[in-house]
Target: MICOS complex subunit MIC19
Amino acid sequence: MGSSQSAPRKVTLENPNETIIEITDGVINRLDGANNSEKIQPESVSSTQPPSINENAAAFVTSQEIRRQVDKVVQENDNFWQSRIKILRDGYQKIGVELEAEYQKATKDVNHSLGTHFGDGNASNDSCRSSQASVVDCFSQNSNRPLLCANEVQKFNECVSSLSCVKAK
Model:
């Protein structure tokens, strides 16, 4: 590759107009220079020079500026979603407070309508408390087999139902 000389190339053009073809001095000099193996210097040297340090610095500043802009957009996006999450949490907290208040009100209404206040030491509550304790004991002893406690659960259910019926009268 490249070790042997290349053969000269001859180009023949046919001129259909039968007129004379004019060749400028520049073309002759270039052809003559190619035969002499002289390299021709281009007229505009500045276009072939590598970019100067100032141009590289401008490109570097541009990439830094792009990075800053991207970081700014990402930060704005993070701030937006953090504020959105805070708004949602506050909303859910308000809903939770309202639900808790409604639950307390419903519990108070049920207790008032049944005429019972759990933990007030009534003898009727004590009878259900013993069956409740037996249900809890049964579940703790048979944690893997809860169906074995069906009888205790049924007794507790009957006790509560009887209390509800008595209080409703």
About this structure: The two ends are 115 Å apart (CA to CA). Residues 42-47, 117-121 have pLDDT under 50 and may be disordered. The chain is about 65% helix and 0% strand.
